[in-house]
Amino acid sequence: MPHVFHHRDRCVTAAGCVSTPEPAGELETDSLSPMEDGEEKERGIVGLQHDSKCQPGQPALMDSQNSIPETGQNGVAVGTEMEEKGMEEGDLKKEVEAEVKVELCQSGHGLQVSFIRGTDLFGYVGIEAVLDQMRRKTMKAGLEFNIMVVGQSGLGKSTLVNTLFKSKVSRKSCTSNYEEKISKTVKLHSVSHVIEEKGVRMKLTVIDTPGFGDQINNENCWEPIVKHVNEQYEKYLREELHINRKRRIPDSRVHCCIYFLPPTGHRLRQIDVEFMKRLGKIVSIVPVIAKADTLTIEERQEFKERIRQDLAANGIRVYPQKEYDEDPEDSILNDRIRESIPFAVVGTDKEHQVNGHKVLGRKTKWGIIEVENVEHCEFANLRDLLIRSHLQDLKDVTHNIHYETYRVRRLNESNVSFSELGLAPWPLENGTDDRGQSESHL
Description:
Residues 141-413 form the Septin-type G domain. Keywords: Cell cycle, Cell division, Cytoplasm, Cytoskeleton, GTP-binding, Nucleotide-binding. By secondary structure, the protein is α/β, with parallel strands linked by helices. It has helices at 34-42, 64-67, 89-98, 130-141, 157-165, 171-174, 223-240, 270-279, 297-313, 328-340, 379-389, 391-414, 418-423, and strands at residues 4-7, 10-13, 18-19, 103-106, 112-115, 143-150, 189-197, 200-208, 256-261, 285-289, 343-344, 351-354, 357-364, 367-370, 437-441. A seven-stranded mixed sheet has the order 11-10-9-6-8-7-15, with helices on both faces. It has a three-stranded antiparallel sheet with strand order 1-2-3, with no helix packed on it. Strands 12-13-14 form a three-stranded antiparallel sheet, with no helix packed on it. A hairpin with a 2-residue loop joins strand 1 and strand 2. Helix 7 (223-240) packs across helix 12 (391-414) and helix 11 (379-389) crosses helix 12. The radius of gyration is 34 Å and the shape is globular. The relative contact order is 0.10. The model is unreliable at 1-34, 38-88, 92-102 and 423-436 (pLDDT under 50).
């Protein structure tokens, strides 16, 4: 409830507003001369100081007895209570109800910030309309998502990617006269597609790594992959440091790496440990158990538990990392995801009739394994993580964590001027001669 101070025939409220009450009865008061009015202003009657708790260094709120005399001219007593003449209890209640509740908090550099809740606003402002603006802008510009699949041949990498996006997006599916042969070295192939769904366009780039883990000697087979990831960071950094940089920098950085584990039922292999230890520091890794329909439910759970133990024992960081949780709500959701990692998945692009409905599944002699049925496999959980709930977070972690770490390290190492960075030639290739790129519109 605001304090009301009275002096002579003027009423001063805590908000600093000055009002002149109507004469009551036979009481007559003299109006203030200009000189007296100036004296009153000098005494600080108009306006109140802020609470000393909100602004350190400011004097505390002045006491009403010290700031305003207790009696005015002609011997009229002036009270500091709200029960003055002309103020009724009903008016007081209305004034209290109309008062806006504002929470004051102290921010950095001595700035005072107020937080006004939506229920305290006088009416509709329209701040929430910014969500529609952001949505329209995103729909016009579209978004980019780059996903890498890593694993030895025969684990169903291409099939799983096609199942994720329900289209022929893998290199194997969209390459004419494709021949399945084991590569002698690890080569990277990227295929780009523009997928549109309900007015939202997304440029999807799938990076395949044929030859990984297929050799007798797999020593350092992860080096071309690490090199490719770092090259994309370097490419983005150079574009960012140009004097006349593009309004929208093309983003070729790897936002997510799906690592396929063979369904052995034992533990992580040495190549799995070495790869994820190195890649987990520079990119978001999501491990999955490929062709999980070859394991029973009990075997699957035991295998998943042993893999989680190996991940913790070797200090391997997989997405989503606990230290990146922003609030308790994110922690609850991500804790459930971390309990399910690695996801036991099955991929297929064929549909079958089940109880009158078409479902994606693999048909066997014993029945149909429904890919999107959580009772059969965890493909739906993987899809929700990558696309429906954490796609933007994957991009944010890539930009704010992995790319930022690379940027700081590179700038500290090179210590070169912006002009040198802008004029330096950029190698377009990633160290392999057979890297293929193609683009399609879906």
